[in-house]
Fold each of these.
Amino acid sequence: METIKLTIDNKKAEVPKGTTIHKAARQMGIEIPTLCYMELHDLNIENKPAGCRICMVEVEGRRNLAPSCATRCEEGMVIKTHTTRVLNARRTVMEFILSDHPKDCLICPKSGNCELQAMANKLGIREIPGQEIAAMSTYRKDTSPSIIRDLDKCILCRRCEMMCNDVQTVGALSAVNRGFMATVAPAFEQNLEYSSCTYCGQCVAVCPTGALTEVDHTPEVLRALADPSKTVIVQTAPAVRAALGEEFGMAPGTLVTGKMVSALRALGFDYVFDTDFAADLTIMEEGTELLGRLNRHLKGDTTAKLPILTSCCPGWVNFFEYYYPDLKDIPSTAKSPQQMFGAIAKTYFAGKIKINRKDLVVVSIMPCLAKKYECQRDEFSTENNRDVDFSISTRELAAFIKQANIDLNNLEEGEFDAPLGESTGAGVIFGTTGGVIEAAVRTAYELQTGKKLERLDFTELRGLEGVREATIDFDGLPVRIGIAHGLGNARKLLDDVRSGKSQFHAIEVMACPGGCIGGGGQPLHHGNSEIIKARAAAIYTEDRKKPLRKSHENPFIIKLYEEFLEKPNSEKAHHLLHTHYFERKKKILVKP
Amino acid sequence: MAKQKKQLLVCGGKSCSSHNSEVLYDNLCLELEANALENEVSVVRSGCFGLCHLGPVVMVMPEKVVYVKVNPDDTRDIIAEHLIKGRKVERLLYHDPVSGKIIPEEKDFAPLKKQMRIVLRNCGIIDPENIEEAIAHDAYEALGRVLTEMKPADVIRIIRDSGLRGRGGGGFPTGLKWEIAYNNKSDEKYVVCNADEGDPGAFMDRSVLEGDPHAVLEAMAICGYSIGAGKGLIYIRAEYPLAVARLKTAIRQARDYGLLGDDIMGTGFSFDIEIRYGAGAFVCGEETALIHSMEGLRGEPTVKPPFPAESGFRGKPTNVNNVETFACISPIILKGAKWFSSIGTEKSKGTKVFALAGKINNVGLIEVPMGITLREVIYEIGGGIRNGKKFKAAQTGGPSGGCLTEKHLDTPIDFDNLLAAGSMMGSGGMIVMDEDDCMVSVARFFLDFTVEESCGKCSPCRIGNKRLHELLDHITKGKGVPADLDRLMNMSMVIKDTSLCGLGQSSPNPVLSTLNNFREEYEAHVTVKKCPAGQCRDLMEYFIISENCVGCTACARVCPVNAITGERKETHTINPSICIKCGACIEKCKFDAVIIR
């Protein structure tokens, strides 16, 4: 490998050719402050527009300061990262940025978690010269079902734009306007709701300030909890337990399943259930559907659509409804676990506890912002009563727990309630990329072959590679599996399928990089991909600890079919647990 | 063309066109027909003559008699008197404002005397819509020579030896640029012509494209051959419809003549050119932003390196040169590097086109050898300051340049001297200011433009320039304090030091250069709250000199806000807190008693 020798702050170093000054300095233990720059190393995601001009350094022989994030090291470079010229420039630029940023930190949803605030603190900014005569750029606030855009707080780091366009290929957000009024918005400065936005929330996940935040539904949840006429139940998605602890100072990857259950109970939920249960149910329905199509295909039935695409991810569903409406009959018709849970809760469970569905409030805790939109879809309501009433994110739950003065760290480990709280390891791994298809394989293999699966850990399906392919031997029948996480990777995979370049029997897609563990509603990773890896590891740990690891062995699932649904893909199951898709391509409306 | 004895060249440049030269052209044609002269005399819509202050201009060829400020109604006289009777129409000839003499021929025009035309060689001489006229004036000869007699490396060497530097503003050696693009191996390369002329008041590129489009097409093909590119793109702002139309005509004609397209002149070399339109954003003149705009992306710069020569249009090696740079290429090939490098100063060779504007007698387009002094430009070519006022400063380099002052009058103008004087060459705008111009307001005025034209990508340019503008505005309103000058200085330095592209790196120049050269003016604004040039309205005070006032009450009666009081036949006074500075009292006073101080 070709290397380059250079000097940073009087220390000599040798780095591979192509290394940026920022990375070279980091290797030497010199942390040059950055603001717009962000990297998720293992996911191949990098944002370096060199726009904020905070990470400027002095390079000997150059007329101007250089942005360390985007300047490649060159042989013999002599770099200084903290001369008075650099420090003055950094401070002055920061004063510029702050002079056009609202000072309402007290009531900002990002306060305490804001990278701009942290940087202002780090640079010791105590006043902003000229603020009294400084005009502020102001924009119309925009609230969609999932995401709030408050662009007065945008510092034009362009991370959201990079996620939306380069990583997700959704193309909802891009820079608009020029100069002082430049900002990031959908085309024609439309509301997000009228754009191609999938509500994946990756823009929110990377926003350094309060410009992009989730719609907070905790006030509605609090109101429901306070209403004595309502029975309020909660379901928690698998990825939540692997990340919630971070909000309470625990190391990334700390599993807090039991403490989370106790906290939810302490918050006043009448029943604490698990979305993992519904994940097991999803496997029963989706797995059966897969085997149905596969066997029809093997018998030569050309109407059997393959590959089957998973449909648990609402961001992904929005994406293919918008961009691949011609393929809308190939995804599984199975609802997502969140919605399966809601449908079962408001029928089977409401019947069990003998209350009207209108008096039962179903709340979901999700690592996801698209789930907020999903539960508001018309097809998931019965007589204007939603199957899932409110969906709140991991971050909102953390804030809720803190508001209620509950000390998560010191809570006893609680247990989920029966019957909708029991799950297998297969349900747990839904939380990470590759998990849904692995869970499906565990069940489909045994149902298809009638044999017991010896090896449950399909490591060939795991990992953080953006697009993965594997062939699983179903006792002599090779089943081709494709996996993509991140919508841009999904697009690649889907384009290959559409063009006939790739042939799969089943494809799992998760909209967010890393799967749900990297969801738009999770605690902020601030550009540290180690956090995402630690969450994935936690998910697989939880799976291994479970006594049952195959969905079809979940006794409560078996009981549910016996008592209520008869069998997978039965007429009743179809009615309650399956859905259909719409072409979502919207007309561009000229009114905001 | 050869059969006709005479030609009437009607300036088709933008300035003359906007003064009805189109109607003038039509009238001339009709009048010739009426006199059955259409077979003997042709009317040609030419490119800009550079005599914009005298437009519309008509030149009679071959005698080169110039008629100025010609109205469409004057056509009858020109035909009847000049063409038929052979007598010059005296009232339409140029009257030298200094000597009062009548100057009939172009060669004797003071504004043209010190000029040297390389870039504008054919502007105003040929019909830009007729390729044969261009060919008759040596167009495509250089290309032919390059394709048949030279290797790419030879061409690059000639350009390098000529000392030609980029005319778009940066002044990067053109030969070196070509060499880098040549050395970057790729299956596909591009030649881009930057015709996104954005400096307010600058129109040299437009004039070349309108007056001699083949000069650019030919040079692009030569560049393509030299660096190994088969495709050229001209990025031009859509606000230049005439230039676009003429380029399209020129490209079509060049293709028809086998001078563009496949197998040019049968040499096996293929090169074709397409036009790309810009929406007029100033920042798209920056080469990376220009390339992104052509790619269909937001017109925003990106960090260099990688330079376009390494990774440009669609990630391929791309050579971007400005219109004026390209227009220098063919003469260099034909006349040699030595000839070109004999013109100009040590490090700046050849000529430079300036758009002369402001408080000067002769405004317009001039082409002068590098190294000419500001004094020669202003007093000899420009005819001195208008209304006999005193010269104060000349802004070069457009809104991101700086100002030259009296002490720079005898400095030879070239890339390096302008930089040393705190200004820059830029694309060649030159705005002359006189004693009535307030330098704080001038700086604010230029900032107006850069604030408007910043793309917003980097924070120092997006926010810093806005803050700079606000502070200047504050000062011109008399609200500044002495410490503000240090803040101006610091903000300016940091914006220059930290901005992403040339726009932000140069936008504070007007502030810095006025602050350096006219600090006392700034100080007057922030300490005694006065504007020495008397231009900042908020700092003016209307005052009645008691010695001159006779107490006629005229001022008091005309004052719309009753700010003036005083008994009849006694001295009047103005209450400054009521006065709205409308100036009515000054106009009314017959005794020069009201002054602004």
Amino acid sequence: MNLLTSDTVIKQQIIDQFEKHADELNKGSGSQINRFRKQALNDFNRLGIPTTKNENYRYTPVDRFLHGNYDLELLANPFRINLEDVFKCNIPELDTDVLLILNGFYYGSERQLNLPDGVIICSLNEASQRYPDIFNAHYSKYADTATDGLVAMNTLFARDGIFVYLPEDTELNRPLQIINLTYSFNNLRITRRNLVVAGKNAKAGIVICDHSLCEQSYHINSLSEICLGDHAHIDYARIQNENNLSAQINNVFVNQQANSHFNSHIITLHAGLSRNNFYVKLRDPYCECNLYGLFLCDGNQHVANYTLMNHDSPNCLSNQLFKGILDDEATGTFNGKIFVRQDAQKTRAYQRNNNILLSSSAKMNSKPHLEIYADDVKCSHGATTGQLDNEALFYMRTRGIGVNEARHLLMYAFANEIVSEISVDVLRERIIELIDKRLRGELSRCNNCDIHCIP
Amino acid sequence: MQMPSQSKIVQGMDASQDKLLTQVTRGDYEFGFYTDIETDSFAKGLDENVIRQISIKKNEPEFMLEFRLKAYRHWLTMKMPQWAHLTIPEIDYQNIIYYAAPQLKPGLNSLDEVDPELLRTFEKLGIPLEEQKVLSGVAVDAVMDSISIKTTFKETLAELGVIFCSMSEAIREYPDLVKKYIGSVVPYTDNFFATLNSAVFSDGSFCYIPKGVRCPMELSTYFRINTANTGQFERTLIIADDDSYVSYLEGCTAPIRDENQLHAAVVEIITLDNAEVKYSTVQNWYPGDKNGKGGIYNFVTKRGLCKGDHSKISWTQVETGSAITWKYPSCILRGDHTTGEFYSVAITNNYQQADTGTKMIHIGKNSHSTIISKGIAAGHGQNSFRSLVKVVKKADKTRNFTQCDSLLMGDQCGAHTFPYIEVENDSAVLEHEATTSKIGEDQIFYCNQRGIDTENAIGLIINGYAREVLNKLPMEFAMEAQKLLQISLEGSVG
């Protein structure tokens, strides 16, 4: 295929695919989801798949990962998966409510969830029909299809995903664990759409695990809209462990109201292409937002983290820290932007990106941007790219630590800065264990889990 | 902090301050006068014929005309770049005079033959062209509109083998050197403005430092736009041969006018083995008035090529002028053990816009680069810093340090940073840091407490803030730059 025109070819393929299946899509989902498709189609037609000519995707050749033939998953897979059989993450210490999403469709849980009164957790499609008031107030309100072709594409194909609603003053007893599984015998194009609404003063922890159960190539376009009411607090953690042929675009739109607090940890252990787009809007004063990211990649993997931190109101605080370790031919990108509006005085916004290159063919591109229109602010960013400290390695070796072990220790210490910020103790330990294994080159899956993640 | 030195500065500042204040409150730009002199200029507009005419006027060899025409034909296929963080009004390229020259007698031998009006102009600008009047050892090439008026100390320099003359002269006298190097750093296809410049450039300075020569005096080009509706397109070429050294200065001014004028220059520097070039600019074009009316559009391509091993190029710039600045002095570190440096202070006040920064392309092994940028935005100014640090795969053990600070004064201005860091080598060490803030109230309070009024306190703090860069300037330039900082920010203190 001619690379110059590949993006237009992919665009046409996707539009054709939509037109062919539009009836099925519309029939399968609620009218509140369907009514956004027309605008999304227009926007997608105009924007297409972003290429490296698009400033935000300058270093991420999305089009290269997306061409080829992919089937669309239009219906929930009929075979039932017994959660207890495949997923044994429910060891006593990590006390979570586990939910399953397979190929973008909500499967829920076999077990009774232990939820406070008023909390709704269900499939997005179901929510659009059963809770139209809440749904309509938030669905597609934060993710603007006019800005990015991939956002438009998600809205165009949106079919299902998870819906979480926390009414005022509720707090989840234990974190919600969402397992995203991909299982297929043919190449798939998966669309996943999630909506999380936290009312005033609500509090929740959400842990998301992404796994492949197959060796097929697939492309996931995932989009989550997260809305935090006044004083709401959400801890969001995502661990990605997928096969080398996977391509995942993960768009997260966060909308924060006054005094709300959002923490996010994105740990990318394994994936073909992983692109995390964070669009945070600090809508009201006194919000706090912390974004942490860690990625470990080797082979031909590509990991890209993009953030847009919109300081729309005064007195907000934001923190971004993204770290990466790259080996072999892997490429990584950090593309962060802090945008401070003119009236967002007393803003404090910080951004840092540190990378380690382990091989001479790995590549790292950083674009830490600041755009500031208010004067009474404290903003900073820092970026470094380098390698493991030779002096530290030497120090350890003089004390009888082997070179491999010493390197391992240094990488581990490098990663620890991100992981140590995770507030749930058990989860933190679990992630530390996974990273430890990943750095040792072992298959990174939990000891108690039967899922055969295919690297 | 050392109090004695502070108060000394303040006393020194005080005397000139009053004068400056009155100048500025009247909205005056010191160099905004116009010299009424007979000018030989073309009609407005651009086509192949105009380019041929320029070439004929300059009595150029055939290769130059070909170079110009190739560039022009390529330019017709190009569009103005849109990526900068600037709002550039539509520019009508047919509404510009591409050649305007003060009338000079042919074959000027001594200064007596130069129109005294011209000499007075440069005297007023503080650039005396009479050598005996020059205090410090600075050789000047004075360029007005499209042509070079006079190059001083040519003979003294010639004794050492240093060639310092106008570009037109170099094209005629040293065609081999020009042919070899022109377009070798900034090719005629490089970008919209550089391509336009390649097609229509009228003059500029040429400098060649032979092997092993350390240029005994500072070389300087002074650019002056005088005629209305002209665009200035000058081209500078500096070649430093093995083991040589030169320090080069550039200054520029223009009259006050309501219309915007275009300045699209190209500067190319080549350093061979062990050579070093230090290039300093104080940009003082007319920045437009308080309401953003008028001013120069400064769209400049400056690039140095560290071709030889162990060579060094250092850019220092103080950007106070221009309504819009689009300028990225860059270094291509091709040789091994080469060094690239970029020091910049950029100020935008009133409605000025600047998108400036640098590119450091590491190709050679063990190449090092340093970027220090200090941006100051006041009034409605928008100040952007844009940089690219690129390490290619075979560039082992390279090192870069980037520091970029922005200072905001007032709530209508903006400060932005757009760094790009691309690393393809695992032995490279790159560091980047940036901060944005305003002048601390505690700092001003501290000064007030010691009897320094707010205006002076801010001057003091700004000077301290920019010192790291100002220190890199040659002595005379540093003084001028310090003064300029003061003027440029006058009245912006709320």
